[in-house]
Specification:
Blueprint: E1 6-16, H1 20-29, E2 35-39, E3 55-56, H2 67-77, H3 84-104, E4 118-126, E5 131-137, H4 143-157, E6 161-164, E7 166-174, E8 177-185, E9 191-201, H5 222-229, E10 234-235, E11 240-247, H6 257-260, E12 264-266, H7 274-277, H8 287-299, E13 310-313, H9 321-325, H10 327-337, E14 346-355, E15 359-360, E16 366-368, E17 374-380, E18 385-386, H11 398-420, H12 432-442, H13 450-464, E19 468-469, H14 471-488, H15 502-526, E20 535-536, H16 544-547, E21 549-556, E22 559-566
Parallel strand pairs: 1-2, 1-9, 2-6, 9-17, 15-18, 19-20
Antiparallel strand pairs: 3-5, 4-5, 7-8, 8-9, 10-21, 11-14, 12-13, 13-14, 16-17, 21-22
The structure holds flavin-adenine dinucleotide (FAD).
């Protein structure tokens, strides 16, 4: 391909990603400075729009609640790996941000008195673990859709400039400072150089490295992989959450809100098996525990007809509730399974859902380098970031909280930073790396097909790096991924056209997934304990003396270099995790 022309732009700040985190950051930053949002998707197609069940905040509209209880639940749910100073910020500000969204016009479900309605969700309790509490604010089972639409409208109103279907290819970091990004326009194939004082990455998760996943096709971890290649470490990558209730084989999510409204998991004998694993919270135990319980039932031969799934039972719920409060999931079940969830049981299995790990940041969303120092002008928020508020296992509803709280904090910090910062010079040959990558992928090498490599990667991750892990399987996975990474060097994009080259996009995304799977597996192999979503069959106990610490991964040649940093503990000392 002859190099396309490079177009140049200058903004105070560039936000990459138009999900909840990116839009919240853009909205805040644009109050004080000129902001561009660069997004590979049209903004309202971002994965935030699929979030179903709710956003947690201790409003106490239906029963007494306190942010300290929310904080305790988050820390315990995260198996004590959360940085508690950051969790405190999140649970306090959640309340304010939910009201802010309400005032922007977000149509939450209402109580009879007209306040925001709230429902139960996994791991959220009253009085430090006594009983399930109604804390999740929701708009039917379309909460994320409403958040995204609301924020997008506000950004448009405020004059944020959008570059839709522009794909981040490189983040320019030079001498500890970020000076902009390089992006590729899908419609024209041109490279665009964005020169800016600040860049915030909000590129979302990477569940597409697994075969069965709730994540959209576009969740390929682009931002995480790109800065990793630039030497920024990735934190706690061994922790990947499996949500207990994906539709069998398809992985499409059935919100935990379904259990929050009273849904029950049953095995082949019709038993409510969570009684065995979490006698107090039952079906509303945290996700890591429920997913493991499902696998244990399956292994004991109590999966439905001896197969690898169980049932979610909504048939006993009050008439009209499913249609009123869970209309979308009722639709999914009818469309994809041909079943009526009001009368029939829903076949479910754990589905890869959420990356607890990501780009390390402080509570201002500033990206931290391997020495814990902020990279000047570089920020990250949302699922691509690791603050760390979710520790080893995220509670339901806490990602929507995370994206709006830390998106807003990042936007605010940028707004303060911009007036006192000079515009950093661009590094020499700023677009060279991006151009070389495109050239490499489009050079004829008679090589490997993208889809085949991706399938193999997803199989490996599903088999060896999912809910249960052990040394031999992780080593096999690491060797398999190494082979795939070398085969990837021979990947060849057949489509040579410049406009709308979606094959080239897939090739780039496969490269990101391979890097992140590599890091995830290496970090999982190193951590010889079980904590939260990381469950080692050969090391079944949590080991606070050895492993109450965050991992930081950097690429050192053809190996993943791992270092560790301490966990910030303020209010809650680690305890045994019983529910
Ligand atoms: C089905 C489903 C249901 C969920 N339900 C809930 C729930 O009820 N409650 C809850 O708390 N959490 C829920 N979650 C999790 C939560 O929705 C996500 O973690 C959160 O929305 C992520 O937001 P984000 O802003 O970080 O990223 P996203 O919303 O994923 O947005 C990522 C953005 O980055 C852009 N992008 C990515 N790569 C590039 C690139 N290379 N160049 C340019 N742009 C790029 C995309 O275009 C997109 O705009 C759910 C997740 C799923 C999958």
């Amino acid at each position: 391909m002859t190099p396309p022309p490079v177009l140049r732009h200058q903004f105070d700040a560039v936000i990459v990603g138009a999900g909840g985190a990116g839009l919240m950051a853009a909205l805040e930053a644009s109050k004080r400075c000129r902001v561009a949002v660069v997004s590979k998707l049209y903004p309202t197609r971002s994965h935030t729009g699929t979030a179903q069940g709710g956003i947690g905040a201790a409003l106490g509209n239906l029963e007494p609640d306190r942010w300290e209880w929310h904080m305790f639940d988050t820390v315990k749910g995260g198996d004590y790996l959360c940085d508690q100073d950051a969790v405190e910020v999140m649970c306090q500000e959640a309340i304010e941000v939910v009201y802010e969204l309400e005032h922007m016009g977000l149509p939450f479900n209402r109580t009879a008195e007209g306040t925001i309605d709230q429902r139960r969700f996994g791991g959220h309790t009253t009085e430090f673990g006594k009983a399930p509490i109604r804390r999740a604010c929701y708009a039917a089972d379309r909460t994320g859709h409403m958040i995204l639409q609301t924020l997008y409208q506000q950004c448009i109103k405020q004059g944020v400039v959008f570059f839709d279907e522009f794909r981040l290819l490189d983040v320019l970091i030079h001498e500890g400072r970020c000076s902009g990004i390089v992006a590729w326009c899908l419609a024209t194939g041109e490279l665009h150089l964005f020169h800016a004082k600040a860049v915030l990455l909000a590129t979302g998760g990477f569940g597409r490295m697994y075969k069965v996943t709730s994540n959209a096709h576009t969740l390929t971890g682009d931002g995480c992989a790109i800065v990793f290649r630039r030497g920024v470490p990735l934190e706690d990558m061994e922790f990947f959450q499996f949500h207990p209730t994906g539709i069998y084989k398809l992985g499409i999510l059935i919100t935990e809100g379904a259990r929050g409204e009273g849904g029950i998991l049953r095995n082949d004998r019709g038993e409510r098996f969570m009684e065995r694993y979490a006698p107090t919270l039952l079906d509303l135990a945290p996700r890591d525990m429920v997913s493991r319980a499902i696998y244990r039932e399956i292994r004991a031969g109590r999966g439905i007809q001896g197969r690898d799934y169980v049932h979610l039972d909504l048939t006993h719920l009050e008439a009209g509730l499913v249609e009123r409060k869970l209309p979308d999931i009722a639709d999914f079940v009818r469309t994809y399974l041909g079943l009526d969830p009001v009368r029939e049981l829903i076949p479910v299995q754990p589905t890869a859902h959420y990356a607890m790990g990501g780009i390390p940041t402080d509570a201002q969303a500033q990206v931290l380098d391997a020495h814990q120092a902020p990279v000047r002008g570089l920020y990250a928020a949302g699922e691509c970031a690791c603050v760390s508020v979710h520790g080893a296992n995220r509670l339901g509803t806490n990602s929507l909280v995370d994206i709006v709280v830390f998106g807003r904090r990042g936007g605010r910090h940028i707004a303060q930073y911009i007036p006192q910062a000079d515009l950093p010079p661009l590094p020499p040959e700023a677009t060279r790396r991006a151009q070389e990558e495109l050239d490499r992928l489009t050079t004829p090498r008679g090589g490997e097909a993208i889809a085949r490599l991706r399938d193999e990667l997803q199989e490996i991750m599903m088999r060896h790096v999912s809910v249960y892990r052990e040394e031999a399987g992780l080593k096999e996975a690491l060797a398999g991924i190494a082979t795939l990474r070398s085969r990837y060097r021979a990947v060849e994009v057949q489509d040579r056209s410049r406009r709308f080259n979606t094959e080239l996009e897939e090739a780039l995304e496969l490269g990101y997934l391979l890097d992140l799977a590599w890091v995830t597996t290496a970090a999982a192999l190193a951590r010889t304990e079980s904590r939260g979503a990381h469950s080692r069959e050969d090391h079944p106990a949590r080991d606070d003396a050895g492993w109450l610490r965050h991992s930081l991964a950097v690429a050192t040649g053809e190996t993943v270099g791992l270092t560790y940093k301490p966990v910030t503990i303020t209010r809650f000392q680690p305890q045994e995790r019983k529910y």
